Automatic annotation (TrEMBL), chains A, B:
Keywords: Amino-acid biosynthesis, Aromatic amino acid biosynthesis, Lyase, Pyridoxal phosphate, Tryptophan biosynthesis. HAMAP family: Trp_synth_beta. Its EC number is 4.2.1.20. This is Tryptophan synthase beta chain. The beta subunit is responsible for the synthesis of L-tryptophan from indole and L-serine. It comes from Nocardioides nanhaiensis.
Length: 453, 453
């Protein structure tokens, strides 16, 4: 019976009630974040101006399971559990013996996986009396998610959006405003960090790193305000594990185990969320999937970056994190997958990669959009630019299966829909999209600015 | 248990396998369509240049149940069954004793209920050897749906899009092109109808009626081509009854019966699809809900139009249909709910209304968008402009319940999401949106042009 089905649904009583912390099961712990001044491991008091204590604890905990608060579950149930789908129509188009499954996170109000962490971040801040959150956003997925989440708990939300996106994507701006957020293009003249950048380059298109600097500065300036980050940090990846925990149950419903897991990696939260629960099963010897990161050729932090301590933002306000980085001063080419344009990779994903539990490949955007069109025309869903990388990688794997005759089970996360990214598709269909890259020289220059510890 | 739940899901094995034809249960049959030349009831041969024989049969059948072909069910299962949701968070905001349920059709690939009929229309044409379909679209929901549907069966799709939408909504255009459709702004110089309009007004913004004329003309010009209409006709409403049939089962899961059904009406297909299965239950005495149509104040065909024979298009190429009409020459004000800007109402909905089984009210767009913001901030989903009318009407009812203390069960259809309609929300949030209306004089002028039979 399961053999004939394509959609594997859980009901609202089956939303996971605990997040999974992969650190508890890794044979070696990940290196700690360091204070930017002292270069000593940061303590809770260093992070207290930025985050509520509950999230700081989650950032460093070695507990395996963290209970999800009821007030978070109530909001998760607006869209969770998300569906797991076998892409039978795409398989047929590819004429492959592979079985392609995708976990679809585009059903959330914001249209991506980001509310999985936005909601608990807002909840924990609210529970500790914080009434206002600041954040940055690139393409707008994260800002939309935090705007939605803060609205659920009656909090204010202030978003610094990378100026190039702010100018080019009014629809995303409107979506954030529908949920009640206040927006600022970044760099802005509202922060010292922003004013500094504008003084050097009044026409700066901005970057995620700059916007982070601004949102952090605005958060620490007020007692009632904290900062929220949409990726990279341990607690963010922790919250995202609801994706993988649900997918584990749904793969059981489908009566299959994955041979290959592929996920797109920008900051790493979608990837970690899908993969860590399966990595647990792998470490315990209960399954043995290949785990593969897919990153854009224009921001290849795993495949071409270096594993070292670097800042999370451009100006250097955040703690130093051991991660694969292209250098905190690096501004990736303007590919359409705005959510993947980040210089670093989550320390946890970087660590897992270094330990050899995951491999990585990079793909150019033309191949990604070609894959997205094949996907849309068969499975109906128009993917966001970010998960087009995951789809392209899944298709690469399925095409290898066609050559070898292997009937591998491929699992990926379709982490968002592309309804607000039609400009990218327009460029692709008009033939004006190009594959953007990264020269060795630019990479060298950016890396040379990274502190040596 | 059902009392505590909010989301009522069916699985893919529970997609309805038959459409329901309300004509079989109506005590009085609806008046037939008439040939525009002879004023005699049209026969199958009159419609054969436009539609495949299977759909012509469905247009006139009095059978109660029509089997859904397997090739249609296969595609329905990409997104169906759609969820039924109790809007508990909105209820809480309204502080109402009412229980508000919505059937959410925005989960389809096109983002609305329209693929429910686009898919079978493409399938039946394909089955009869047709390789190309033409159609019109206003806001773009229908064109997107037909583009998606034809892609599933390897057919060509040519869409005449109302020029004002074509120019203002490039995202919708791109969405249709992603699915492989060819687009023309209407009026175009590709048809006699279009050239005639352009000769009289080179800057014509177009209208649905004009675009229908063009698509019909282009269809009859070629043997391999037929025409597809997204609303109004009996077979379209028939296909949409999957909405109501699923909702009936889901309301049983929720252990409630609706006291009030509200649905937005443009051409009438979303409304008919939700309501007709419940009307069957009402006619059989198994439940007794109030059934209410909600239309925009700018295109109030039921509340201010006249019930008479009129053309479906502007030029007068279609059969004459007995319906509530504002006159086939009427071009509604440019409200944002493009899908509701139509001069007529589905003959079946008009007949049901005339027979007293349904009531109607009209609402201005400011109240609708106010309601939409309340909905988005509580339930997460950003509605398309069309169903903001249904939400506004549901909120009106819930507010009456608050006054009277009644705990009525309200059921509506959220027939699409608004991800591609952010311009409308931008206007609302910026305070530049106005309530548009319809003067008695304009209405009189339009109605005077309607043939007297």
């Amino acid at each position: 019976m399961a053999e004939e089905r394509s959609t594997f649904l859980l009901d609202e009583t089956q939303v996971p009630t605990q997040w999974y912390n992969v650190v508890a099961d890794l044979p070696e712990p990940p290196p700690p974040p360091l204070h930017p001044g002292t270069h000593q491991p940061v303590g809770p008091e260093d992070l207290a101006p930025l985050f509520p204590m509950a999230l700081i604890e989650q950032e460093v905990t070695t507990e395996r399971w963290i209970d999800i608060p009821g007030g978070v579950l109530d909001v998760y149930r607006i869209w969770r559990p998300s569906p797991l789908v076998r892409a039978r129509r795409l398989e047929k188009l590819l004429d492959t013996p592979a079985k392609i499954f995708f976990k679809y996170e585009g059903v959330s109000p914001a249209g991506s996986h980001k509310p999985n962490t936005a909601v608990p971040q807002a909840w924990y801040n609210h529970a500790e009396g914080i009434t206002r959150l600041t954040t940055e956003t690139g393409a707008g997925q994260w800002g939309t998610s935090l705007a939605f989440a803060t609205a659920q708990y009656g909090m204010e939300c202030e978003v610094w959006q990378v100026r190039s996106s702010y100018d080019q994507k009014p629809a995303r701006r409107t979506m954030m405003e529908i949920y009640g957020a206040t927006l600022h293009p970044s760099p802005s003249d509202l922060t010292e960090a922003g004013r500094g950048i504008l003084a050097a380059d009044p026409d700066s298109p901005g970057s995620l790193g700059i916007a982070i600097s601004e949102a952090v500065e605005a958060a620490v300036a007020r007692e009632d305000t904290r900062y929220a980050l949409g990726s990279v940090l341990n607690h963010v990846l922790l919250h995202q594990t609801v994706i993988g925990e649900e997918a584990l149950r749904q793969m059981e419903m489908a009566e299959v185990q994955p041979d290959v897991l592929v996920g797109c990696t920008g900051g790493g939260s979608n990837f970690g969320g899908l993969v860590f629960p399966f990595l647990r099963e792998k470490l315990a010897g209960r399954m043995d999937p290949t785990i593969r990161c897919v990153e854009p050729a224009a921001a290849p932090s795993l495949t071409r970056g270096e594993y070292r301590y670097d800042f999370g933002d451009t100006v250097g306000l955040t703690p130093l994190m051991k991660m694969h980085t292209l250098g905190h001063g690096f501004i990736p080419d303007p590919i359409h997958a705005g959510g993947l344009r980040y210089h670093g990779m989550a320390p946890l994903v970087s660590h897992v990669y270094e330990q050899g539990y995951a491999e990585a490949e990079s793909i150019g955007q033309l191949e990604c959009f070609r894959a997205a069109l094949m996907f849309a025309r068969t499975q109906g869903i128009v993917p966001a630019p970010e998960p087009t990388h995951a789809i392209a990688a899944a298709i690469r794997e399925a095409e290898r299966c066609k050559e070898t005759g292997e009937s591998k089970v491929i699992l990926t996360a379709l982490c968002g829909h592309g309804h607000l990214d039609m400009g990218a598709y327009e460029a692709y269909l008009a033939g004006t999209m190009t594959d953007l890259g990264l020269s060795d020289e630019d990479l060298r220059t950016a890396l040379d600015a990274v502190p040596t510890l």
